[in-house]
Amino acid sequence: MKAAHIYGARDIRVENIEIPELQPGTVKVKVEFAGICGSDMHEYLAGIYPIRKQPVLGHEFSGVVTEVGEGVEGIMVGDKVAVEPLIPCGHCKNCKRGMSNLCTQSQGYGYSFSGGFAEYAVARAENVFVLPQNMSLELGALVEPTAVAVHAVRQSQLNLGDSVAILGAGPIGLLLLQAVKAAGAGRIFVVEVSEERRDKALELGATHVINPVTTDAVQLINEMTDGGVDVAYDAAGVQATFESGIMIVRPGGEFKIVSLWEKPVNFNPSIIVKTEAKISGSYAYNNLFPEVINLLASGAINGNAVITSMIALDDIVEKGFEQLTKDRKQCKILVNMSL
């Protein structure tokens, strides 16, 4: 089968490899759609993560079941499915505390095991979720990033009617926007340099969009909220958004960091000392796939709105990774294995 291998920074190659073997308790999936994630981009631009144990990328993917291993129940050949990539150990302290996303021995598809940028994938049955008949496989590939956004909102101190700022309107930012709206946020400010992404944010329910290149977002948000939003979410991961985030939350508010970072940031802790605001992180998700599938299938979160391109696996570098480095109009690019 064909699969996309990463060998280092800006070195991804589509090569022919053996199809993973079906094992007892596992399911073989013919991959139909797989999304390029921000974390994939970090590896492409900055180099391979230490956690990577094999080269086949892709952890946001959906497909159709072609084989079912011995002992598997509730999943049948022909089922449309989404695959959850996280494989917690179930035994460490964090797993026992109910925080499997923070498992100290975690593995994952697309990192420890062959991922979704391949024609076929084999996954544990407990990582395979059957999609409703009315839900497309394209949306199935959006379950993983949507779970990231929903988890971040659930982990934050957002309450019904609260004001929110979202810094960055890429895929996670736009999914965060819809998640906070579904959770009952009041005013929603989106700060984004791309005009196309600002327009999309308005379409999806932002009450205010701000171009930080032409407008002082910190001053404007603080003026409009009389001292800052209740919760700000960073979905960009750069120095400018970090600086803005800590300056636009009200005293006692929360700055929730959802993005991954390629570089450290400079930070004066006195800003937080003087406001008693919180800086907190959000990593992946925890047992959320069933709920997120329902949100996407029902249209409560519009996953289709963040998809901007469909490309073939053979074009994953030039029309995928390279395109995302230079075209701010792009949001979520899906690899369509049928192209």
TrEMBL record:
PANTHER family: (R,R)-BUTANEDIOL DEHYDROGENASE-RELATED, SORBITOL DEHYDROGENASE. GO terms for molecular function: (R,R)-butanediol dehydrogenase activity; zinc ion binding. Its cofactor is Zn(2+). Keywords: Metal-binding, NAD, Oxidoreductase, Zinc. The keyword Ligase does not apply. Signal peptide: none annotated. GO terms for cellular component: cytoplasm. Belongs to the zinc-containing alcohol dehydrogenase family. GO terms for biological process: butanediol biosynthetic process. This is Alcohol dehydrogenase catalytic domain-containing protein. InterPro entries: ADH-like_C, ADH-like_N, ADH_Zn_CS, ER, GroES-like_sf, NAD(P)-bd_dom_sf. Residues 8-335 form the Enoyl reductase (ER) domain. SUPFAM superfamilies: GroES-like, NAD(P)-binding Rossmann-fold domains. The keyword Metal-binding applies.
